[in-house]
Amino acid sequence: MEKKACIAMVPCPGHGHLIPLLEFAKLLLLHHGNDFHVTFLIPTLGPPSPSTIAIIDTLPSNIHFTFLPPINIQDLHLQSPNPVPQMILTVRHSLPSLRQSLSSLSSRTKLVALVLDQFSLDALHLAKEFKISSYIAYSSGAATLSFELSFPKFDESVPESEFLDFEQTMDVPGCGYASFKVKDLPDPILFHRSSDVYTTYLSVCQKSLLVDGIIVNTFNDLEPEAIRALQQGKALRTPSPSVYPVGPVVAQPKQKTEVDECVAWLNHQPSKSVLYVCFGSGGTLSQEQINEIAFGLELSGHKFLWVVRVPSEIPNAGYVIGEKEKDPIQYLPPGFVNRTKGQGLVVPSWAPQIEILAHGSTGGFLSHCGWNSTLESIVHGVPMIAWPLFAEQRMNAILLTDELRVAVRPQGDKEDRMVKRDEIAEVVKRIMDHNDEEGLEMRKRIQDLSDAAAVALSENGSSTKALSSLAHELLNKSI
Ligand code: UDP
């Protein structure tokens, strides 16, 4: 049997969850590759999408992976198209094949730990069964984690009724910078309390308290109070899971031989002149909102690179299921692409985000504030327009605007939340105009955060130390 300890990692479907787990595995092996190897056991809803396969294909040879047999969406008997039950139930239905894979791994290797996404916690009992320790590689920041660990108590404290009161505030330990209303918090809690979305989410929050440790993709200078609250166990029961802030864990820009279309276009644009517009791996907008963005970008006069998706009234319609076959470009207003030829580039469905954010011509990011996008923008020092859509993105947007002050947020219409073209043009100018004092200050603040992120990941940085103490704990458990 091999001397190195083996870690099994189980992501849940969704690129925003798969990518940070893969990047965490790369980081662990970069620093502690002599001690560990990693195998990914990947549950999928339907066959893996081309972009999932493209992501997996870039893995270094010391990370092994197995796609578990795909789950059929009809077998999940979903009540709603929300991603939370989709992700959790996909993992639940994959448990027999996951157990088999773990059994095979443990017969061949020195299996020491199971690292789960929070939405694959249904597999937690397998850690007990195989007598190994259990961790969550948490896919959002410390503030959201602090909320999720406190949420079961909050739920108990509210008398059973149809919905939580959206206007009620909840104190999130370590987040004194904001008074979060229920409507600002992760969206599963806005559902009926007996719905599958609410109940599966609550069970995730409850189970998160039961693991040995939680690896968080954040760093001390980004969320100092929330990290402290977690490490002091303020949001937790006792004994608390250990908390390891090891971030920012984000992918490195690839050095490709063939130049991608987006990068080729950026190569011809002036420094920091382009606004990158992307709503994560599966965020979607209504047709009317797509039109307003198109006209707003045109009106702003600033350069843009826009990843366009097929419209939907549901903001996370494409999250787990993946790309649609239709061509999204046909949903743009007639004549838009021609009129903006010199001003912008539209890309269907997917773009190399890391390479775009790392490019010197990119000067701003209109983002849905998914946690990976947030960290990627910070790492590359790109100020943001915060446009949260679903999940915990409103919390991330509040952190970016109110606490860190590195983003502006359009208000939208009070009634229907639609953001009109004039407001879009105005926020674009606020971050892209190089004479705008507010924009320049935001640029400076996000550059400072980017520098702090680099320090956290340096040899003696706080995140490198947290990673070492995690590796130490894992090795001790393997003896
Ligand atoms: N991403 C990308 N190209 C795209 C859209 C997304 O490379 O066109 C990547 C992005 O860099 C990030 C991830 O997909 O790493 C999205 O994660 P995030 O947490 O921001 O949002 P989610 O997709 O979970 O809503």
UniProtKB/TrEMBL annotation:
Q: Which family does it belong to?
A: Belongs to the UDP-glycosyltransferase family.
The UniProt entry, under SUPFAM superfamilies, shows: UDP-Glycosyltransferase/glycogen phosphorylase
Supply the source organism for this entry. Answer: Stylosanthes scabra
Q: Which PROSITE patterns match?
A: UDPGT
- Cleaved signal peptide residues: none
Protein name, entry field:
Glycosyltransferase
Recorded hits in Pfam families, A to Z, give:
UDPGT
Q: Which UniProt keywords apply?
A: Glycosyltransferase, Transferase
Q: Which Gene3D superfamilies match?
A: Glycogen Phosphorylase B
Upper classification of the source organism reads:
Eukaryota, Viridiplantae, Streptophyta, Embryophyta, Tracheophyta
Q: What is its EC number?
A: 2.4.1.-
